[in-house]
Write a structure and sequence with these properties.
Elements lengths: L14 E7 L6 E3 L1 H9 L8 E7 L5 H8 L4 H9 L5 E5 L2 E10 L9 E9 L3 E6 L4 H11 L7 H35 L6 H18 L3 H9 L7 H67 L14 H27 L6
Parallel strand pairs: 3-7
Antiparallel strand pairs: 1-2, 1-3, 4-5, 5-6, 6-7
Helix pairs in contact: 4-5, 5-6, 5-8, 6-8, 8-9
Length: 344
């Protein structure tokens, strides 16, 4: 007998947990031995189905699945490729889905943590595989243990999609509140850091790429679902995709809002920089006659003007004041020419 393998809560075949759903839709926990017997039973009841959740990092997981479950080859390819974008599409008489679970705290400098869940759905089974724990699957397990009823494998997938949409809504609200705070700081003449806005915008783009389902695959699925998918389940899936679409539209609007705020911040910083450069240039131009004259009159050579004149000092001071005043007037005139007219 093979001794059990410790694998972060999974059994020796990589099964984290499994449930058998009879006609009443209430899941009963089963192990791999009971699951393999049920899958091999050709006379199993029609309305029964099974959910098996595996740890993909376990070496025995794929071998057990190939032996006991008739999985599409596309599912095995998705596991090998490690596809990360959210999608659900029809393959033969089943469905393949890829979902992503996100941990995002909106903290500056915090990394966006994404965990992927691969699923294959058939008329009588749902097989899910993950490489690391996912909070969305834990919430689904809590719903199953809480005696929530599920009448088909697709109902479990729809529950996962709804949870994912709720996660997107929470992230979008947190991001919107953060952008509101940045806008308030900007209106109060406290310029925010552009890096914070840039990171927030990059994270939203990545979230949209990872969590948004592929529209073309969903369109084909909703128009030509498998024969075992009921009308009510197809409508529930359509509603879940509509929730996704609305949240993604809000995220796109928030991205545009962040982009405009970045442009405003950049423009404000540019204006400040231009004012500082103008002040430095003005000081340099105004002080240029004084510095030039002091350098010339400080040379120890003969022929210095007004060297023997009793009023020479005051003559030089008068000329310097005249030239400096003229330079200051020219700088001010140039500044006034650069100011836009009133009302523009």
């Amino acid at each position: 007998m093979t001794p059990p393998i410790s694998s972060y809560g999974a059994d020796q075949y990589g099964l984290v947990y499994g449930y058998l759903f009879p006609r009443d839709g209430i899941g009963r926990a089963i192990d791999t031995q009971a699951a393999s017997a049920w899958l091999a039973d050709q006379g199993r009841p029609e309305k029964y189905f099974i959910w098996l959740h595996f740890n993909g990092a376990h070496t025995a997981t794929q071998a057990w699945l190939r032996q006991h479950v008739d999985l599409p080859e596309e599912f095995a390819e998705a596991l090998r490729e490690g596809s990360r974008s959210t999608r659900i599409e029809q393959v033969q008489n089943g469905l393949i889905a890829v979902l992503n679970d996100v941990v995002y705290d909106m903290i500056p400098g915090a990394s966006l943590q994404v965990a992927t869940l691969w699923l294959v759905v058939g008329p009588h089974y749902l097989v899910s595989v993950r490489n690391q724990p996912l909070s969305s699957v834990d919430r689904l397990r809590t719903a199953v243990n809480g005696v929530e009823t599920f009448n088909s494998p697709l109902a479990l997938v729809i529950h996962l999609f709804s949870d994912q949409a709720n996660v997107l809504v929470r992230i979008m609200r947190s991001a919107s509140e953060k952008v509101d705070g940045i806008e308030d700081s900007f209106l109060a003449e406290r310029i925010p850091k552009r890096s914070n806005l840039g990171q927030l915008r990059r994270d939203l783009v990545r979230l949209q790429r990872l969590l948004a389902p592929e529209p073309s695959a969903l369109f084909r699925l909703l128009n030509h679902p498998p024969s075992w998918v009921g009308v009510g389940e197809a409508e529930n899936l359509r509603q879940s995709t509509e929730e996704f679409s609305l949240v993604l539209q809000d995220i796109a609007s928030l991205q545009e809002r962040i982009k405009l705020l970045q442009e405003e911040v950049a423009s404000h910083i540019g204006e400040r920089t231009n004012r500082s450069l103008f002040v430095l240039t003005a000081v340099t131009v105004i002080a240029l006659p004084i510095n030039l004259t002091a350098g010339l009159f400080g040379m120890n050579v003969g022929g210095v003007p007004f060297g023997q004149d009793q009023a020479g000092f005051w003559i030089v001071v008068f000329l310097l004041m005249l030239v400096t005043g003229l330079a200051a007037w020219m700088v001010r005139r140039l500044r006034e020419d650069e100011q836009p007219p009133n009302g523009l």
